[in-house]
Fold these 2 entries.
Entry 1:
Amino acid sequence: MRPARRAFGKRVPPPKADGAFRAATLNVHYIWGRRATGPWSVGDWEARAPSLAAAVAATDADLIAFQEMETFSGGNSDETNLARDYLLERFPSYEAAAIGDWREFPSTQPIFYRPETLTLRDEGWFFFSDSPDEIYSRTFDGSYPAFASWAEFETPSGARFRAINVHLDAGSGENRLRSAELIADRIASFPEGVPALLLGDLNARAGSRTAGILENAGLTFAPVPGATFHFDHGINLFGAIDHIATGPGLRLAAGPVVLRERFEGDWPSDHYPVVADITARAAANR
């Protein structure tokens, strides 16, 4: 998979890089619940669901980090999650990590993975908050709860890594900076020999102060070409805000590529999928 400024031709990805697993990130946009009408309502979801399924299939990813995978039904309840259930039903080759009983595990940022390629070893979460281990705690400036989910995987070669799925505040730069600092602190506490693979919607571009904090924590951002957010209209006004970044022990093998197109005649979301191939080295081989 070569770096490119366009989507895969005819939505058929090239062969995976030798010895690599394919990772992707996609913000699928909230579904506002059964009382809403118009954009992002349940009715709108039912119309765009085939597009999302086609986009997921086009990634051909072994690991996909999803953001905003939530169907609002009141409070923090996740008993109804239309997008997650729809995709898991249509893609039996995937299992979902970083989910659980919503009362104990926030489950709206799942990480799908192929167990034939990756073995799940652990999972967890932390909130972007002064009380990060308190579930649904509000952000540093008191806005709606936001969090990181993570899952630790082992590759067939015995290498381990932790995928961190993040969605940073769109409206508050201060929240983004403090959230990045918290992510950096958590990465520093990871077990020895378990590098970080950061995926998600940072609401910040490469070269920003937010990205700089994470680079200082040892992450290397893949050079995502062009826009990843398009206003649900294919309007590409600014550089990527959806990113994939690797820690020591992980290497970008190919990509990244942005799937910048409609699927099944519709946009699956207001964000494009971002895809990259990653290789992981076992700790003894570093």
Entry 2:
Amino acid sequence: MAKGSSGSYQAIWEFFGTELRRHREDTGLSQVELGARVFVSGTYIGQFEAAIRKPQLDIATRIDEILQTDGIFERLCRKLIDDPRYADYFAKAAELERLAAKICEFAPALVPGLLQTAEYARAVTLAMNPFASDEYIEEKVSGRMERQHILKDATRPVYWVVMHENVLRVPVGEPAVMARQLEYVAKLARERTVLVQVLPYAAGAYALMTGSLKLMEFEDAPPTAYTEAVYSGNLLDDPAVVNRAHSAYDLLRAASLSPEASLALIESAAEDCRRCASTT
């Protein structure tokens, strides 16, 4: 398989897990015992072995030290973290998404990547890269689709999204593409895979008018905030800064429509797109 395909990356993570289980059992350590030595839970070790969760680089390095595996897990982890499907500034945040127990996200202009359909993601990527090759576009779309596996896992995080009404009103792709995208968000909300609120135009000025925000909480690590601007992103782990980000997000939620009213608005916007599609 080509290196850029989603399947090839998953296959390597599965190889990582298989090798981890083999080396751990060879040393006579249980998942709990290995977890204690590398400062994670035994459950996490089991999830690494099942390729459900992906270890961070420092954990892979500690595993090599404990199991005396001559750096194999560090090398695998580095290879996979260096994923050409993600921008350099976002790669670390993509890894942390996989480890998060809870994700709270504010999207001021676009449907969040974890909720995008492939055709919507393709339209966004093409708009940002009008001279790119088809291979490049599909590589980026593949990466975005692969990220969404975390919402299908049994261990999926709690996911709460606040979207500005701009997200519903600015057309991305053909009207039918936009309609299917909004219908997909509505479907996930009805299935309670994600809790969605819409910040309406009527709310006026709002907290975080300067950009997007992703808050990530973990079972055994401090919370982290990720902010993004044009061609740049920042992971923030200073407790005071993360607390301020949480406070700003609370203000957004307070100014937003209820989940029920938000769902109704999303479905109404999708129907508007459907009508537009039928007349073109």
